[in-house]
Amino acid sequence: MKALLVVAHPRTDSLTARVAARLGEHLTAHGVEVDVLDLHAEGFDPRMTPEDEPDWADRDKVYSAQVRAHMDRISAADLLVVVFPVWWFAPPAVLKGWIDRVWNHGFAYGRSQPRLAGKRMWWIGLAGESAETFAEHGMAEVLDRQLRVGVSNYCGITDASVTLLHGTLAGEDHVRALLAGVTDLVDVGGRVGS
C-alpha cells in the first residue's frame, strides 16, 4: 500500500507537522510506503494560473508541470491523508489552492469513470476551538460536507472521512495526550476513527 501524506502548515515544528509525522511513522511501521507532500516546504503556489485553470471544453487539457507532478503523486497513492490546521473554521489557503489547482477537471472529476475511485482518504484537521464550540456553530458538519462530500465524494472517493482534533491551544498536557492518541485514530486496514 502507498500513502500520500499531505501537510499544510508553514512551520515544520507546528503541532500539525508533529501529528503528520506521527501518522507517517505509524503508517510506515505497518508496511505502508509513505510519500510526504509538505505543501509549504515544497514551495507549492496555491494561486490559480491560466495554465491550470480548468477548460470545461477539454477534459484532456495539459496542465502545468508542477500540477501534473502532484497529480502523479495522487494517482500513485492508495490512501490520501491530509493533515491541516483549521483556521477561521476552514482549511488554510495553501490547501484550498492545492485542491483548486491539482484536483482539476479531467483529472479528479469530469469523466464518466472517476480516476480516483477506489482510493481512501482521511482529512485530519487540528482546531484550536473545542468540539462544543464547533457543534454550537455547526462547523464540524460544514467541514465534513465541504471536504468529504464536496471534494472526496465528488471526485469518486467514497471511502473518505473528516476527523477534527479539538482544543489544540488548551495547553501542553492536552497536546501530549492528543499526540499520544493520534495513532489510535487510524486503522491502516480500514478507516479513520471519529
Notes on the protein architecture:
- The protein is an alpha/beta fold and 194 residues long.
- Helices cover 35% and strands 17% of the residues.
- It has one domain: Rossmann fold, CATH 3.40.50.
- It has helices at 15-29, 65-76, 93-102, 131-137, 139-152, 172-181; strands at residues 2-7, 33-38, 79-85, 120-126, 159-165.
- It has a five-stranded parallel beta sheet, with helices on both faces.
- Strand 1 (2-7), helix 1 and strand 2 form a beta-alpha-beta unit.
- The chain starts with a strand and ends in a 13-residue tail after the last helix.
- Keywords: Oxidoreductase.
- InterPro entries: Flavodoxin_fold (IPR003680), Flavoprotein-like_sf (IPR029039), NAD(P)H_dehydrogenase_qn (IPR051545).
- One of its GO terms (molecular function) is NAD(P)H dehydrogenase (quinone) activity.
- This is Putative NADPH-quinone reductase.
Short description:
Belongs to the NAD(P)H dehydrogenase (quinone) family. With 194 residues, this protein is α/β, with parallel strands linked by helices.
